[in-house]
Amino acid sequence: QVLLRESGGGLVQTGGSLRLSCVASEYSKSDRVMGWFRQTPGKERQFVATISRTADSTDYADSVKGRFTISRDNIANAVYLQMNSLKPEDTAVYYCAARSSFYSSASSLAYEYDYWGQGTQVTVSS
After folding, report:
1. What is the pLDDT of residue 97?
2. Integer angstrom CA distances of residue 2 from 23, 25, 95
3. Residue 104 CB burial class (10 angstroms; 0-12, 13-18, ≥19)
4. In terms of CB atoms within 10 Å, which of 30, 44, 60, 99 comes out highest?
């Protein structure tokens, strides 16, 4: 069982920045492929960013490329999402997700993730 806890969401003005954190807790520590997704009411969960187990590979949704950066600290068992130049359309609940430890490749597909956090609200005011 893997428990994921996000933090760092909040209210920010257009053009501002936020840094989301996600800490994973599990009985036997295992580096996992991690991802960030976001969701707004009435819409499907949307891919934001993903990072491989060793951080040698990352991928981003086109809508956030050049503005968001995903990173990880395997010692701390944490993954981060630095969000710059925020826009009102970035407003959503942001979820951290982890793949089974069997997989090493980053993934943009929500159904390939086995564990999810409870989400953190990000609101960007215009």
Report:
1. 97
2. 10, 6, 14
3. middle
4. 99
